[in-house]
Amino acid sequence: MSKQQKAISRRLKEPVLTDLNRKMAFLAGPRQSGKTTFSKLLLKEKEGHYYNYDYDKDRALLLKSKLDPGQKFWIFDEIHKYSRWRNWLKGLYDKFHDSHQILVTGSAKLDIYSRGGDSLQGRYFLYRFHPLTLSEICGYELNAKNPDIILESIATNSYDSREKSSQNALKDLLNLGPFPEPFFSSQTDADRWRLSYSRRVIHEDIQSLERVNDLALLELLFYQLPNTIGSPLSINSLREDLSVSHESAKKWLEIFEKIYLSYRISPYGSAKIKAVKKEQKLYLWDWVYCNNPAARLENLVANHLLRFTHWCEDIYGIPCVLRYYKSTENKEVDFVILKKQKPWFCVEVKTQSRSPSSQMKYFMKNTGMKLGFHIHEKSDDDYEDRSLTGTKIRVMPIWKFLSGLP
């Protein structure tokens, strides 16, 4: 694909436009993931006004509630940085929801920062806004909107994908990351962007939302996280490296999650399959910080699967969660996706193609899981493995698997 920047159609456009007719829409996601561009594109669909709390002029208008009543669509960006934003927004919505539509965007978890006090619950729909995905970059149509049909189309290879476009896009995603600005730039410019990005988020966004005395230590912690990807996370090891308390390291990791720098997934399984219970794995919203090729690839797949679970929840209201499996005997499956608290499908990620592992088959057999994906980076192997009775394991290239996801 051409590296010249182009307008990419984001899949949340139609759902957000539809929901704005009923409630407020909250758009929460990492800084510079495309939320502002997406919001301003909506202004081409309907007349309205964009207010950014980070701009002095807009902030003064917001604090004085001097909004343009003639504009029937209001967009409030970064409003969560205002300490009383919950009550302010509740009052505004209760007064104007019959005549105005309201979109709220922010680079922190708005559902967390909306808790407590005068609750906004029941007045908004929340969307988790992810950076670019492979299928969005390639402009693939989402042939099926039902999540089960999406999976079935991937398993049966009946969906839109173009090998050369997808392979090139996957390579660019691995090297440049999913954020629009670095993705559409050179490697050097992407590296420069990434260096300033983490510093800016830690020293500006965190400082505006949380009370942290030593931001320098917080920054050191963040740069240690890429070394933990793909392995069980040890908070004790991290805190020893920094000579801080366990509580401080734990709190800082929670802050990183609130502002979309990292996220953790928990293990899944019962005593029957000797599953570990507490060892979480950590991944970054921008996998390029990780220098290990295998871990970076795993992180990229994790982000796409996380996006799929958020899509199922935010669009269809289907409870989904991303987990992994590891046993006390070191059997492991990279990713397990639960739907309504029950095993739905699992995914193993490999750089080289091999047959589905005995560990994956063991897990599927003992949990009753019917569908699995063995995806690989450096092979053309593409076939269906039915060696385990009653199950379907699809062996396929990573680019093809990701092309079928939203």
Folded structure, characterized:
By secondary structure, this protein is α/β, with parallel strands linked by helices. It folds into two domains: 13-128, Rossmann fold; 134-403, no CATH class. Helices cover 40% and strands 18% of the residues. The chain is built from 15 helices and 13 strands. Strands 7-6-8-9-10-11-13-12 form an eight-stranded mixed β-sheet, sandwiched between helices. A five-stranded parallel β-sheet has the order 2-3-4-1-5, sandwiched between helices. The model has no long low-confidence stretch (mean pLDDT 90).
Mean residue pLDDT: 90
Strand and helix order: HEHEHEHEEHHHHHHHHEEHEEEHEEEH
Number of strands: 13
Give the end-to-end Cα distance, rounded to a whole number of Å: 19 Å
Q: Can you tell me the number of structural domains?
A: 2
**Which bin fits the share of residues in helices?**
25-40%
Dominant shape = globular
List the helices and strands and how they pair.
Blueprint: H1 13-19, E1 24-28, H2 35-42, E2 49-52, H3 56-63, E3 73-77, H4 85-96, E4 101-106, E5 124-128, H5 134-138, H6 147-155, H7 163-176, H8 180-183, H9 187-209, H10 215-224, H11 235-242, H12 246-258, E6 262-267, E7 281-284, H13 293-316, E8 320-326, E9 332-339, E10 342-350, H14 358-367, E11 371-376, E12 383-385, E13 392-397, H15 398-403
Parallel strand pairs: 1-4, 1-5, 2-3, 3-4, 6-8, 10-11, 11-13
Antiparallel strand pairs: 6-7, 8-9, 9-10, 12-13
